[in-house]
Structure formats: C-alpha cells, structure tokens
Design goal:
alpha/beta; 7-stranded mixed β-sheet; Rossmann fold; globular; 7 strands; 6 helices; 171 residues
Length: 171
C-alpha cells in the first residue's frame, strides 16, 4: 500500500479544487500520468501523485474521472508503496474508500453564507438536493473517521488551510 494517502474533502464550493491547484503549483515541474481510469500529475522529485485532472473548468480534480475509478485507484496504491498520493473531491472522498484504505483526512468547511456566495460566483447549476446530499455525505465521513477540520471562510483561514495541507504533504 502507498506510504501516505492524503484526502481533501468538503461540500461543493468549500474550496477543495482551488486549494489543490495552489498546492500543485508548489510541486512543479509535474508530469502527467495515467493508470487505467486514474489520471493525474506526478512530482518525480517528491514522489507525490496528485489524483485528478486540473484545468480551468469549474469542476476539475477527481470530478473529471470516471465514477468507476475507486477500485483502480486502490490497485494503483499497492503498485507504488513508497509514494504519497493526494486527492480531493467526490469520486474518491467516500466512506467505502476509507473503509479499505488508511487516509489522512482533511475536511474544508465553510459557513452557509460563504457557500452561497461561492456557488453564485462560479455560476454553477447544482441543485439544492444535490448540495444537501453532499453535505450529508461529508457529515457521515466526519462521524465515522478521524479527520482534521479546516475552516475556510476567510482569506486568512484559506492561507492556514493551505499551510496545514502543504505541511502534511511534505512530512
């Protein structure tokens, strides 16, 4: 199994993909990699795999991967035992993965006012039902796992989230 797996989660618009894009920039240069349905970026210097497709679209990261990515991801983890894997987003941030694989879990959390403003800013069309389902999913993960909660409501908190996750990756 992989040396370390860092999972970043939170409700839609909590800032997961934005955070990951910033973290990725700190690890340049990166190579793209593909292992079946798993795609992402690889830092040869640090032996870190960033799972997901990161481009300029509103929804990126693991959201751009197949819904069937999880079993392939688990297989990949066993093939590269000395690497660190980092992911964010809904495709892999789920209890069924955490039941099978030990992950360091970080949950970005924002208040309702900030969430509403971020949804409006990115002009997404996610329904209230979808957002409630994701909120419930994240809460269930928090109820059943050890995790680090990272408030992400202000620029200062975003900076602290970034520093905390970057420090975890570099340990």
């Amino acid at each position: 199994m992989a040396q370390r797996i860092i999972a970043i989660g939170g409700e839609p618009a909590a800032g997961k993909s934005t955070m990951m894009k910033r973290i990725i920039k700190q690890h340049m240069p990166l190579k793209t990699f593909s292992y079946g349905l798993v795609k992402g970026l690889y830092s040869e210097e640090h032996n870190i795999y960033f799972i997901g497709i990161y481009d300029n679209s509103v929804f990126c990261g693991t959201d751009k991967l197949s819904m069937a990515v999880q079993p392939v991801f688990i297989k990949l983890l066993s093939k590269i035992p000395d690497a660190t894997f980092v992911f964010e987003g809904d495709r892999l941030f789920n209890q069924s993965l955490f039941d099978q694989v030990k992950c360091e879990i970080y949950v970005l959390e924002v208040n309702d006012q900030v969430l509403k403003a971020r949804h409006e800013k990115r002009n997404d069309n996610q329904t209230e039902q979808f957002k409630r389902a994701k909120r419930t999913k994240v809460q269930n993960i928090k109820d059943n796992n050890n995790f680090t909660l990272l408030p992400n409501n202000t620029e200062e908190q975003t900076e602290e989230c970034y520093k905390t996750i970057l420090k975890a990756i570099r340990q």
